[in-house]
Amino acid sequence: MRQQHFLMPTLREVPADAETASHRLLLRGGYIRQLAAGVYTYLPLGQRVLRNLERIIREEMDAIGAQELLMPAMQPAPLWEQSGRYAVYGPELIRLEDRHGREFALGPTHEEVVTALIRDEIQSYRKLPLLVYQIQTKFRDERRPRFGLLRGREFLMKDAYSFAADEEQLDAIYASMTQAYNRIFTRCGLRFRAVEADSGSIGGEGGSHEFMAIADIGEDRIVTCTDCGYAANVEQADTGLPQQEKRETPEPAAEKFATPGIHTIAELEQALGVSSKQLLKTLIYEADGRAVAVLVRGDRSVNEIRLQRILHAEQIELADADTVLRLTGCPIGFVGPAGLRMPLLVDREAAAVSSAIAGSGEAGYHLRHVQPGRDFPVEHVYDLRLAAEGDRCPRCEGTLRSSRGIEVGHVFKLGTRYSAKLGASFAGASGEQRPMIMGCYGIGVSRLVSVIAEQRHEETGLLWPMAVAPFQVHVIPVSVQDEEQMLGAEALYRRLRAQGIEALLDDRQERPGMKFKDADLIGAPIRIVFGRKASEGLVEYKERQEANSLEVTVEEAYERIVRLCLN
């Protein structure tokens, strides 16, 4: 490709609304442009990266026997009603009507559509197992699109679905898909971990794993064991059994004391000179319209995903200040576990404390010497807190370490959640009808563009891995007016293209400084510069991730490129 007429509008200034390095560099490098919040155009550079990612994914999906298809993005609402997700999916589902008043949704995922398809086409166990996939645009009306391609309202996704006759078949597909994902993300040059995860709104009856790219800006927190390799999203991680604290004898009675104007755990710590581990906090939630109280230690956070699962609720949210006052008779910050007129769910760590400080249920007052079982009921004790740095591993005696990650892939064992509701059954060997056992497997393709850029960049530009880069080689004659430089650059460019190597020739009449800055932004893995010594057959050879360049002959540069790009 020749750069003079290539649509690659690089930017000198950093866009004001770009919060992350990947977002800034993809905009500055001419990869993407925003059309609306969370909606982006992929310029030719960005499209080339997408196509390279799609190629890697297709190769690995085809290698495990997955068959590619393409399903409609516009999905009839009755399908979603039949699965039970239409009313509860939430405002992220983009809904619309056609001219006849029939309701549709723009697909954020395709469990319903693919289940209906296979239901109508497969009736016998002899056709199972079956694995299909697509690479298609998805739509989710994110409340707060952010970080460029990392959280958008329109995005490209690879979603695959498996249909099995029994658990053994499902387990085999799940294992092969997990291995394929490991190969895909390795080929993309990512640092990643597969971690145990919650199935979220997709649901399912079996296991689930997320593939997390390690990144400081990640919205997900994961914990990993220092000893046994256990890894999980904090929302899925078990926290281990707490040690029961020894209680004093005789036990002092709970004592009310004044705490005017003190509402938060941090304020209590400072005012009383105590650790947050000695405090209990009572949080009021609304779960499908009913109120429940949750008690955790002051230094802990509630695992809302687990709470939702325990309550079998479709939706949960923290009650607002007015609701808390109406339900408890006191403002937020003074609610305590004693005397509540609603169910109280106690985290097992909070149930193990010997004596603590908690809200009194009266504005301006707290209680000290509060003890579980005596001052409040401990009938409903669960693991309700998020795992944290320093916790004991639930699988061994190791310690959990915390890091942030960005989800790039997710694999689920769905079981019969969709097949049973949508009637996707098959005839077994003896003729009995049984629901198909399903799995689903997703990769955020467009998100991968940003994740790779986030992990692989420097201040001046991007550092694409060879398999993903829009161009493998950037050929730069310093001056297009210099005949020797242009002849040499043109000859090398043609040789590379003849070998199937993607090369970009900078044939623009620009200052050398501008060419080099643009080359940094683009981030091709190899850069060849034809300068003053072009007439001697010498060029500057530089691999993007190396600090220094080499002066080599054109032939040596060509041989190095072929070795790196084709081997």
UniProtKB/TrEMBL annotation:
Pfam families: HGTP_anticodon, tRNA-synt_2b, tRNA_edit. Keywords: Aminoacyl-tRNA synthetase, ATP-binding, Cytoplasm, Ligase, Nucleotide-binding, Protein biosynthesis. The keyword Glycosyltransferase does not apply. One of its GO terms (molecular function) is proline-tRNA ligase activity. The keyword Transferase does not apply. Catalyzes the attachment of proline to tRNA(Pro) in a two-step reaction: proline is first activated by ATP to form Pro-AMP and then transferred to the acceptor end of tRNA(Pro). As ProRS can inadvertently accommodate and process non-cognate amino acids such as alanine and cysteine, to avoid such errors it has two additional distinct editing activities against alanine. One activity is designated as 'pretransfer' editing and involves the tRNA(Pro)-independent hydrolysis of activated Ala-AMP. Consists of three domains: the N-terminal catalytic domain, the editing domain and the C-terminal anticodon-binding domain. Belongs to the class-II aminoacyl-tRNA synthetase family. ProS type 1 subfamily. HAMAP family: Pro_tRNA_synth_type1. This is Proline--tRNA ligase. It comes from Paenibacillus gyeongsangnamensis.
